[in-house]
Specification:
CATH architecture of the largest domain in chain A: 2-Layer Sandwich
Helix content of chain A: 10-25%
Structural class of chain B: alpha+beta
Largest sheet of chain B: 5 strands, antiparallel
Oligomer: heterotrimer
Distance between the termini of chain A: 61 Å
Strand content of chain B: 15-25%
Number of strands of chain B: 12
CATH topology of the largest domain in chain A: Aldehyde Oxidoreductase, domain 4
Number of helices of chain B: 13
Largest interface: A-C, 71 and 64 residues
Number of strands of chain A: 31
Helix content of chain B: 25-40%
Number of domains of chain A: 3
């Protein structure tokens, strides 16, 4: 079985997406559909003193204005509001629950009207008076209030003493700003009310079953009362891991009015939800004269809300990457009057590894070592935090292949030494690392005697290619052409899947397909073996494969029975098998993906305009299921890295506690003209330990390391070290 | 968006009549800025008068060698018009530096002149802004003012004009033809936009009930020695931090005529006749360009976050004049700065 | 504002030819062309990504020119011929750009894709993009958060018949 896995198969949902047929959450029709528009708070902290909806209600076409004062019941226990991705500590936000204002942009009313424009207009007529409380939204201003999370990293050795005695020591703060995901699709929910009072919720989410369980809890509904569906998701990048507040509001609206309703947030309102938290990353490295590390410390100070402790692993990545006898890591939180951050592409690592890899570059300069050579000197074959070997780690090969493709050996190490006319040329590099996670997933396969199979699972495809890889793996495992496979995803009634995130869905869904396919094969073998004179009579399951529409002896394909014959003989039209795959626990290995990123920038020597002209990303991520969609994922991560390095920053005016660039004209993300040559190299990384197919996942690794590689290239070009991201030209100008 | 009435004007006179009949009315042509602002509830017209079908779409030469551009010519049509490409390439380049292909297809020449500032506080109705709500205060003054003006500011407003096209038009000494209740008149483009003073809510000197009918470009097109250089936070589809329109007439290496206009630094396209006079008769050399830059930036004042613009503008002026002198105008597609 | 506040402006009858099909609609003037397509004609292939002309997801062709349908009112387009993503394929045969986008994996989530393809169709008609940099610049009004830009450029080059 190897016809599709590992090949550059085109997306199976491609046609739907290029013809406009693919329907997203805010696009499902319903009879008598109502439209809701959200009214937001314009202060960061306080309470609603008075909310006057009378004028809004007089507008022709307005049916209702839902507020905390008139809404249908909502759960009153935190447990009901905790979705599967919610932080352990804290009390999740409850939209329209009471008169408390916890953050600017908080929803405080939902205007419901017969059409969207009327609802939007009437929303401007809702009058609000606040009782404003004192507030703080500035991380740097509140840095002294940072408190360590209760579960600190376990230190190794004595990092403080080792740093004090180091031959070369580098210590600095790196500041990563708040960033917003800004998927292209607006956050949206269409709640369809049927005559029996049941709801079908089309929601922009990365986890339909997470939203389903959450809604059942929040609204005290039985599982059968609500179905959550999300066949296409217009980008998410972590923003759809937790249920977004509009899904609560849409459900509230449907229950209140007993009608179908759609709630779509504006781009501006999307900034009121989760984001990558601003962090101050303090990294200290101590090296011996031979260029090996003696000490690493990394402390992150991150924003969270007053009501939840959101924390990710920013620090500690050095434990996977660089050998050092002494280390100490800490993650501190500052509680501010803002909404809770959430996961955003490579949460923790994108920020923390950025700081670490800039610091390593600074150390290389101090040691007068080539940045790649420094990393090779410090290369760790074990994850030092648990002192474990890796299931596989081809990072050395990433450095070698990446450097070779980039032409790194031609680099003059002296800053400002390479030029192209009026442009200073900078070459920088960095390492990337992410976890190779895998989760329990169940898949159902329905094979029909005409040789078609439907493969279904509740997992989402947020653009990552889940539809396609599931089809590839199923086609191979069932021995059918990929055209004969149809894949159904993202419906809460389908077999179990977690949220799509953390780069775990490829490995998790692929192996679920394998185990379900094996159940199908078992059934087919049973039928085939009963045919009189069957070439497979008495054959063991392990000795058989499904191939070319038949079940065959694995070592002698001529001993085969066609699936159609087996099913016809057995009088079976359809074989349907569902199986949950759980990965065995392996406490003897660390599981990570790695990358080596090389970037070229050109910086105008007078005007300091920075262009990223080339990026080479060499990735070791086990076996690549689909080299076409996989390459796209890494390329997308590189584009994110360009944005993170040079452009992206959510800017808040702390006098108002308000985000002042809550749009995608002034919150800059890369445009086509910003992106030039991106070379993605997949380094061969056989992995016999991690799982049967040797898959690790690609969603996050593409961004990690890219911002640092670019920042290091900017240093190499200009001789200026910018530690406050993004690196805009004004920071270089002097 | 607020609730408004819609009317389609049949001719210019009809548009003027409709405007006079409703003090809350606004004209709409391309709509790219007005509809954006209406969606933010910053603009709340009681009536939109659709002038997009008026016959103001011609680009035609006049007897005295000028070029008359109808107010409704789409930005992209103007940028790609053979007469503009050949005679006024500076204008073509500036237009192509702005917005996106789609927006340039929609936006009219007259509408481009009427663009309002992109100041974040102007757009956010929850914050004070003298331009949006006279007398409420200027939030940018002591707030997030990285994008804000360094020239011609007042105690009431430090907003910038976001147009690229207007910067080139200012350098080219364009005239704005206007029709109104009391007949037709012409204003120099450099007098069309205002500095904020104590009336920052008034962007232009267009009078109540008036409509732009055409732009006129006088003959010197500077087609040999020109450049439009726009510096921004990404390579395309972003407003200028600083932009420079430079146009030179050279006699050998000596400057016989010079025009320099700045964008992104003031409430209007910024010119200095003094700077241009200082260039005339001088050799086209960096030190003379540098001196002109100093004169252009005389009186520049920075707030907390936009001080970099002074130095950036100084360097950009020198660079753009150099590009113009070398006849190596900045390409808007090829991003390496010539 | 008196009655203006409570009573919505009168609907205005307009006529649009969308993908060759004639439609008569009665619309309140505040309805944008984008919302008319999505909400009144059930053509949800045209996407709303920002509603402010900042992303290009709503790009359609009006009388053959690419525009942002979120920044124009439907009433202003009375009588116009509009082509959306749903109108590009011919009798089920994909437009060369649509096929090229699949071939080059020029999208991931697919949400910006209709706008990218319509924008690219406009770009081909304009005939102004002669090299890679010019394609990049003239496609910069279409944001792609998945970061498929290099593949989008390759797809457009395929459709242009360039290597």
């Amino acid at each position: 079985m190897n016809a599709y896995v590992g090949t550059p198969t085109s997306r199976v949902d491609g046609r739907a997406k290029v013809t406009g047929a693919a329907k997203y959450a805010g696009e499902f029709p319903a009879d008598g559909l109502l439209h809701g528009f959200v009214v937001e708070a314009s202060i960061p902290c306080g309470r609603i003193a008075r909310l006057d909806t009378s004028t809004a209600l007089q507008v022709e076409g307005v049916l209702d204005v839902l507020t905390h004062a008139n809404r249908p019941p909502l759960a009153d226990k935190d447990d009901s509001w905790k979705d599967e991705v919610a932080p352990e500590e804290g009390s999740p936000f409850r939209p329209l629950y009471d008169d408390t204002i916890k953050f600017n942009g908080q929803p405080i009313a939902l205007v419901v009207a017969e059409d969207w424009e009327t609802a939007k207009f009437a929303a401007t007529l809702v009058r609000v008076e606040y009782e404003q409380h004192g507030f703080a939204t500035d991380l740097e201003g509140e840095r002294s209030n940072a408190a360590e999370k209760d579960k600190p990293h376990k230190p190794r050795g004595d990092a403080v003493a080792a740093l004090a005695g180091a031959y070369v020591r580098h210590e600095a703060d790196y500041v990563i700003p708040t960033e917003h995901h800004n998927p292209m699709e607006l956050y949206a929910t269409t709640a369809v009310w049927d005559s029996n009072g049941k709801l079908t919720i089309y929601d922009k989410t990365q986890g339909v079953q997470n939203v389903h369980k959450f809604l059942c809890g929040v609204f005290d509904k039985k599982p059968d009362d609500i179905r959550v569906v999300s066949p296409y998701v217009g980008g998410a990048f972590g923003s759809g891991l937790r249920p977004q507040y509009q899904v609560v509001l849409a459900t509230l609206g449907a229950l209140a009015l007993k009608r179908s309703i759609r709630v779509v947030l504006t781009r501006q309102q999307m900034y009121g939800l989760g984001y990558r938290p601003m962090t101050i990353e303090r990294v200290a490295l101590g090296a011996k004269s031979d260029g090996t590390l003696d000490a690493v410390t990394h402390e992150a100070i991150a924003v969270t809300s007053r009501y939840e402790d959101f924390a990710r692993n920013d620090t500690g990545w050095a434990e996977q990457l660089y050998k050092s006898p002494n280390s100490r890591f800490a993650h501190k939180l500052v509680h501010l009057d803002v909404s809770t951050p959430c996961d955003m592409r490579a949460p923790g690592a994108a920020s923390g590894v950025c700081a670490l890899e800039c610091a390593m570059d600074e150390l290389a300069v101090a040691l007068k070592l080539d940045p790649v050579e420094l990393r090779l000197k410090c290369y760790s074959d074990r994850d030092q935090s648990e002192n474990l070997p890796y299931t596989s780690k081809q990072l050395r090969e990433c450095y070698a292949r990446g450097a070779d493709a980039f032409g790194w050996s031609r680099r003059n190490p002296v800053p400002r030494s390479m030029r192209d006319g009026k442009e200073l040329v900078g070459w920088g590099m960095a390492t990337g690392v992410w976890e190779a996670l895998q989760m329990p997933v169940a898949v159902r396969i329905a094979l029909t005697s005409n040789g078609h199979a439907e493969v279904s699972c509740a997992a989402s495809d947020i653009g990552t290619g889940t539809y396609t890889i599931v089809a590839q793996v199923a086609a191979d495992a069932l021995g059918l052409p990929i055209e004969n496979i149809s894949v159904r995803l993202a419906d809460s009634t389908l077999p179990q899947a977690p949220v799509e995130g953390g780069s775990w869905m490829a490995a998790s869904s692929a192996h679920a397909v394998l185990v379900a396919a094996e159940e199908v094969r078992k059934e087919v073998l049973g039928l085939a073996g009963k045919i009189p004179g069957s070439p497979l009579a008495g054959a063991e399951l392990v000795d058989t494969v499904l191939t070319d529409g038949s079940i065959a002896n694995a070592s002698d394909n001529s001993r085969a029975v066609s699936i159609a014959d087996a099913m016809r003989h057995g009088g079976v039209e359809r074989i349907e098998k569902e199986k949950l795959n759980q990965f065995g626990e392996d406490k003897k290995h660390a599981r990570n993906t790695h990358s080596a990123v090389f970037a070229e920038v050109k910086v105008d020597e007078e005007l300091d305009v920075i262009r990223v002209t080339r990026v080479v990303s060499a990735v070791a991520a086990g076996r690549i299921l689909n080299t076409k969609t996989g390459r796209s994922q890494i390329m997308g991560g590189v584009v994110w890295g360009i944005g993170m390095a040079l452009q992206e920053e959510t800017v808040m005016d702390h006098r108002f506690g308000r985000i002042m660039n809550a749009n995608i004209a002034e919150y800059h993300i890369p445009v086509n003209a910003d992106v030039h040559d991106i070379d993605v190299i997949f380094v061969d990384e056989p992995d016999a330990h991690i799982n049967a197919l040797g898959i690790k996942g690609l969603g996050e690794i593409g961004i990690v390391g890219v911002p640092a590689a670019i920042a290091n290239a900017v240093y190499h070009a200009t001789g200026k070290r910018i530690r406050r991201f993004p690196i805009t030209l004004d920071k270089l100008l002097d | 968006m607020n609730n408004f009435q819609y009317a389609r004007a049949n001719d210019v006179a009809d548009a003027i009549r409709l405007l006079a009949a409703d003090p809350g009315a606004k004209l709409i042509a391309g709509g790219t800025n007005l509809i954006d602002l209406m969606k933010e509830n910053v603009e709340r017209p009681t009536r939109l008068i659709d002038i997009s079908r008026l016959p103001l779409r011609k680009v035609e030469g006049t007897a005295d060698g000028s070029l008359r551009i109808g107010a409704l010519v789409p930005n992209s049509d103007l940028a790609y018009h053979p007469l503009i490409e050949q005679r006024y390439p500076l204008l073509a380049s500036a237009i192509l530096a702005g917005a996106s292909a789609q927006l340039r297809n929609m936006a009219s020449v007259g509408g481009n002149l009427m663009q309002r500032t992109r100041c974040a506080y102007f757009y956010d109705t929850a914050t004070p802004c003298n331009k949006r709500h006279p007398g409420s205060g200027c939030s940018a003054m002591d707030g997030l003012n990285r994008n804000h003006a360094i020239l011609g500011t007042s105690a009431a407003c430090i907003a910038t004009n976001p147009s690229d096209m207007s910067v080139a038009l200012a350098a080219l000494d364009a005239l704005v033809h206007i029709a109104g209740p009391s007949g037709e008149r012409t204003i120099a483009l450099t007098d069309f936009h205002r500095v904020p003073g104590d009336k920052p809510h008034v962007d232009t000197n267009l009078g109540t009930g008036e409509i732009i009918t055409a732009i006129e470009l006088p003959p010197p097109g500077f087609a040999q020695n020109y450049s439009y250089l726009k510096i921004r936070d990404r390579m395309s589809y972003a407003f200028a931090l600083v932009s420079v329109a430079a146009a030179l007439e050279l006699d050998g290496n000596a400057i016989s005529g010079a025009r320099v206009a700045l964008g992104g630094v003031a409430h209007k396209p910024w010119r200095s006749l003094e700077a241009e006079a200082a260039l005339r008769g001088q050799a086209a050399t960096p030190d003379h360009f540098s001196h002109a830059a100093d004169l252009l930036l005389q009186g520049a004042t920075a707030r907390s976050h936009n001080g970099f613009k002074v130095e950036l503008a100084r360097r950009a002026i020198v660079r753009t004049l150099t590009q113009a002198a070398n006849a190596t105008p900045q390409s808007q597609a090829h991003k390496k700065i010539a | 504002m008196g009655d203006v506040t409570h009573q919505i402006s009168e609907r205005i009858p307009i006529h649009l030819v969308v993908n060759g099909v004639s439609h008569t609609l009665d619309l309140v003037p505040w309805t944008t062309l984008l919302d008319a397509l999505r909400d009144h004609l059930a053509l949800s292939g045209t996407k709303k990504g920002c509603d402010h002309g900042q992303c290009g997801a709503c790009t359609v062709l009006v009388d053959g020119r690419r525009i942002n349908s979120c920044l124009t009112l439907a009433v202003m387009n009375d009588g116009a011929k509009i082509t959306t993503i749903e109108g590009l394929a011919n009798d089920g045969a994909l437009h060369p750009l649509q096929q090229a986008f699949i071939d080059h994996d020029a999208f991931q989530c697919g949400y910006c894709t209709p706008g990218q393809i319509c924008s690219a169709a406009g770009l081909l008609v304009e005939g102004r993009a002669k090299d890679t940099d010019e394609i990049r610049e003239l496609m910069s009004g279409n944001l792609c958060r998945c970061g498929a830009y290099p593949n989008i450029v390759a797809a457009i080059q395929q459709a242009m018949g360039q290597p």
